[in-house]
Design goal:
Oligomer: single chain
Number of strands: 20
Structural class: alpha/beta
Radius of gyration: 22 Å
Strand order of the largest sheet: 8-9-7-11-13-15-16
Number of helices: 11
Shape: globular
Helix content: 10-25%
Length: 518
């Protein structure tokens, strides 16, 4: 048995894994004043036939083969006697996803991959690799903290009553909810109550005072081996920040759907993950409670992979891998759609027009039945500018990619305009003095009961997911994904070019109009 750890440090020429960001031009995170830079991941080697058995699963890093293979059946059902066929090919079947015709196996012989490809009823088999979805940012300075005794401990209003968002400690610090008319929806009693939103991401700080009131602990899981859903590393937890944008309870900040039920589904650790983990997370989230799943109405995935597929098309190993990635995601997102689950994903932070750069494909934003969200943000809000719907300088765009736009924040004041002054913002309950551009980002929850600013389509996607939750609540909890998307199109503010355009898609989401308010 070979226990060598195979590492593809150069697996794609371009594969930008953007759960939060890959560079300072992309998504920035700052609990106080520093914009964070993140690195890109790129690979360019495709000889998968050299992979052998993996028995050491410790300390897997970016580019490492996980030791597991994803098996895709020719039809929607797995072949009969698959387990026996895998054994005869020199492997072991370790997991099955019969609802979409995909299984997971490990090799027990060096020629397993070539032998397994001969199994009747199998369309393809591909190795799974660890990929870096976000590099842990190095954050300096104090976090945003306040006395927990000052909080409301969650909303206590009766169903349909106005949500008292002005009790939030950071009232006056958040521009994003107002930019999409969230307060008008809350005033009318629309808060996402009764709607279940699964956030597929990294770890979730489950005791955070803005998440705990809405978090379904019993349904929250981790698909990352060896870790609980409320574990992660580093000083910025991406999943915690994303979840707060969807449904922070209004103690420190207010989420777009502040009474929606959150389901934390950890599929990444320290920003890294395997496709198997994300696949399992989607299927679990989309499976009804009565069948042992999370019973989500909405899935938010602030993650993605930008793949330069045309420039690598001459390499058969790459072609096979890319096709298998597409098929796997399509089967998973189609399963969610068929189960009545609306899937929302971030468009990406590469600043690329996908109508022109046709060599790129964004996973899962361009997969079947996925709503892809671009990002907007103001330039100098604290200086008096209210251009909240201006496309962020980093957002990926294109009519072939974007369905809707939502607030994701921007440090364009510094990155584009070159302005680096100090500003003071007077909120309802506190005064903050920071670099001016930080106030143009999105504030949300962070680890250790703190809050942080961040920018990116990772922040705009959960804002759109929050609007979808308000729509479902307004329609008494019974809406298909097609109906949710239609309502979002009907209610979105048409900006940019008339009709669908490259930056806003079908429009900038509008929470008030989405729930039927004028």
């Amino acid at each position: 048995m070979c226990s060598t750890k195979f590492k593809f440090s150069q697996f794609f020429v371009i594969i930008l894994l953007l759960l939060s960001a890959c560079h300072d031009q992309l998504e920035s995170i700052a609990p106080i004043e520093d914009a964070i830079t993140e690195e890109e991941s790129s690979f360019n080697q495709f000889n998968f036939e050299e992979l052998a058995d993996m028995s050491d699963f410790t300390n897997l890093r970016e580019g490492d083969f996980t030791g597991r293979f994803l098996i895709i059946s020719r039809g929607q059902n797995l072949p009969n006697n698959l387990e026996r066929s895998i054994q005869q090919a020199g492997g072991e079947l370790v997991k099955t996803f019969p609802q979409i015709g995909i299984a997971v196996a490990v090799a027990r012989a060096e020629d397993f991959l070539s032998q397994a490809k001969k199994i009747n009823g199998i369309e393809s088999i591909t190795p799974d690799l660890i990929l870096q979805y976000t590099k842990e940012p190095e954050i300096s300075g104090e976090a945003l903290v306040f006395d927990a005794s000052l909080t409301r401990r969650g909303n206590t209003a009766s169903a349909g009553a106005p949500f008292n968002y002005q009790d939030a400690f950071f009232d006056g610090v958040q521009w994003a909810p107002s930019s999409i008319n969230g307060p008008a929806a809350w005033d009318a009693g629309f808060t996402g109550k009764g709607v279940r939103v699964a956030v597929i991401d990294g770890g979730f700080h489950s005791t955070h005072q803005d998440l705990a009131p809405n978090l379904d602990i019993a349904s929250s899981i981790s698909t990352v081996p060896g870790f609980n859903f409320n574990q992660d590393v580093g000083t910025f937890w991406h999943g915690t920040h994303v979840a707060g944008i969807v449904a922070a309870a209004g103690n420190g900040i207010v989420g777009i759907a502040p009474e929606a039920t959150l389901i934390g589904v950890k599929a990444l650790h320290g920003g890294s993950g395997a496709l198997e983990w994300i696949l399992e997370a989607i299927l679990y989230s989309a499976t009804p409670l009565t069948e042992g799943g999370a019973g989500a109405d909405i899935i938010n995935m602030s993650l993605g992979a930008t793949i330069d597929y045309r420039n690598n098309w001459g390499d058969k190993g790459f072609r096979d891998f890319f096709k298998n990635l597409q098929k796997t995601y399509d089967r998973a997102t189609r399963y969610a759609y068929q189960n009545g689950v609306t899937v929302i994903a971030s468009a990406g932070n590469g600043g690329t027009n996908y109508d022109d750069a046709k060599e790129f494909f964004q996973l899962p934003a361009q997969n079947q039945h996925v709503l892809s969200i671009s990002s907007t943000g103001p330039t100098g809000w604290v200086l008096g500018n209210d251009n909240f719907t201006q496309p962020a300088y980093y957002t990926d765009h294109g009519k072939s990619l974007v369905d809707f736009a939502a607030p994701g924040g921007t440090i364009g004041l510094f990155e584009v305009e070159g302005f680096d002054g100090i500003c003071t913002l007077n909120g309802t309950n506190l005064e903050l003095t920071r670099f001016c551009e930080l106030f143009d980002m999105v504030i949300s929850c962070n680890v250790n009961n703190n809050w942080a600013w961040a920018q990116g389509t990772s922040m705009s996607a959960p804002a759109a997911a929050g609007v979808a939750a308000l729509i479902i609540q307004a329609n008494k909890g019974k809406m298909s994904p097609a109906q949710v998307a239609a309502r979002m199109r009907q209610s979105a503010t048409d900006l940019g070019k008339s009709g669908q355009d490259e930056f806003y898609g079908h429009g900038f989401v509008n929470a008030a109009k989405a729930v039927g308010l004028n």
